[in-house]
Automatic annotation (TrEMBL):
Recorded superkingdom: Bacteria
Protein name: Peptidase, M48 family
Protein source organism: Rhodobacter capsulatus (strain ATCC BAA-309 / NBRC 16581 / SB1003)
Upper classification of the organism: Bacteria, Pseudomonadati, Pseudomonadota, Alphaproteobacteria, Rhodobacterales
Entry's EC annotation: 3.4.24.-
GO cellular component, one term: membrane
GO MF terms held by the record: metal ion binding; metalloendopeptidase activity
Length: 229
């Protein structure tokens, strides 16, 4: 029995070790390429977020990357890229819209998504090993391909769930801070154009983020439900 479980146990240990190594490497890279956010024009909206959260400060940093993106690190830090700040400085994005991005990334931190993704990643590796073993016997040539499709679709679904949760957290925080959900929605309405999404994007079932229209619909539904309560 133990011998039969050995491949799964080894896969589990390997997945955990890979995730921890990847997380440590990511943190080192982020620290080396970032500085604390010091943008005077953003201070008022950040103060409103901080007050709404009831914390003395927000761990927001600027990442030296020309892409338009925001991210939450496993250690709780939140990052905006230089590309996003460039849009703000050129007037293409408002301070309130950037605050909605920061609120979204704080949502990932508050919801424990980094820890959850470690569990998801480990489970997906075990599932893939099981599927390859089973499907490889049933359809020898296509089994690995089918197993990869299934685990890719599962990973995308779990990632999209996290994005919806972070969106909902951001909406609630923005409302509590007196900023409201409109900046979040207005940024989403231009997001695909700003980040250059479109040609070459992953199909919906394999994408790590939900379709923008669906995210906006979920935000509006949350606002309607919360304001009607």
């Amino acid at each position: 029995m133990l011998l039969r479980l050995l491949p799964f146990l080894l896969t589990l240990l390997a997945a955990l070790a890979m995730w921890h190594f990847s997380a440590r490497n990511l943190l080192r890279q982020l620290s080396a390429r970032s500085v604390p956010l010091a943008e005077p024009g953003l201070a008022p909206v950040l103060d409103r977020l901080r007050a709404a959260l009831g914390v003395p400060s927000l761990p927001v940093f600027v990442l030296d990357d020309p892409k338009v993106n925001g991210l939450a690190a496993p250690d709780g830090r939140v990052f905006l890229t230089e590309g996003f700040l460039a849009l703000y400085r050129s007037g293409q994005v408002t301070a309130e819209e950037l605050a909605s991005v920061i609120a979204h990334e704080i949502g990932h931190v508050a919801s424990g998504h980094a820890r959850r993704r470690m569990i998801d990643f480990t489970g997906q590796n075990l599932l893939q090993l099981l599927l390859v073993g089973v499907l490889g016997r049933i359809v020898p040539f296509a089994g690995i391909w089918i197993a990869n499709l299934i685990t890719t679709a599962l990973a995308a679904r779990l990632s999209q769930r996290d994005e919806y949760e972070a969106d909902a957290f951001a909406t609630a925080l923005l409302i509590k801070a007196g900023i409201g959900a409109e900046p979040q929605l207005s940024l989403f309405s231009r997001l695909d154009r700003l980040v250059g999404a479109g040609a070459g994007a992953a199909p919906a079932w394999a994408a790590s983020h939900p379709e923008t229209a669906r995210r906006m619909a979920a935000i509006r539904a949350n606002v309607t439900r919360w304001t009607a309560a």
